[in-house]
Amino acid sequence: MMSVITILTIVALCLIGLLHFYWALGGVIGLDKAIPTEGGKPLINPGKVAIVMVGTALFGFAFVAYILYFYDLSSSYYRDYFIISGWILSGIFILRGIGEFNTVGLFKKIKSSEFAYYDTRFYTPFSLSMGMVFAVLANRVS
To answer: Helix or strand or coil: residue 98?
Structure first.
């Protein structure tokens, strides 16, 4: 069962990474649902470089998930590096899910925007589930 969850995690992270590359190349589909707004005005305006960095990071996260589940780390020189990376990613995703108490996460104050709708139904549950997946992956290798 964990192999299916890991494969779904890898695919989801890669697809979201590709979506970021699409946005960096000028695509606009879904962009309005991905940026927090207040009063119809975007609260952040990420540049193309930042968007590419996020997309690249998401592919890196997928790689860590792949290594933690499908690669035999028992005799690898990088074993501890990947275990620590898994725990750090778990923390990052859980913190994203909890949020910063204003625009994103479980405890956001701004709840009336289109972003808030998608954040409540999709982004926050996804982040929390990714946090749990990376915790399980890092723990099983430890």
So the answer is: helix
Q: What is the mean pLDDT of residues 16-41?
A: 94
Reduced to 3 states (helix: H, G, I; strand: E, B; else coil), residue 36 is: coil
Looking from the CA of 46 toward its CB, the CA atoms found within 13 Å total 18
Strand partners, 79: none
Please give the backbone phi and psi of residue 37, each rounded to the nearest 5 degrees, phi first.
Answer: -130, 160
Separation of alpha carbons 102 and 104, rounded Å: 6
Per-residue pLDDT of 84-108, as tens digits, reads 999 999 999 999 999 999 999 999 9
Count other Cβ atoms within 10 Å, centred on residue 122: 11
CA–CA separation, 23 vs 92, rounded Å?
23
> Closest Cα to residue 118, out of 34, 11, 20, 16?
34
pLDDT in tens, 128-137: 999 999 999 9
Report the half-sphere exposure of 117 (CA within 13 A, side-chain side): 5
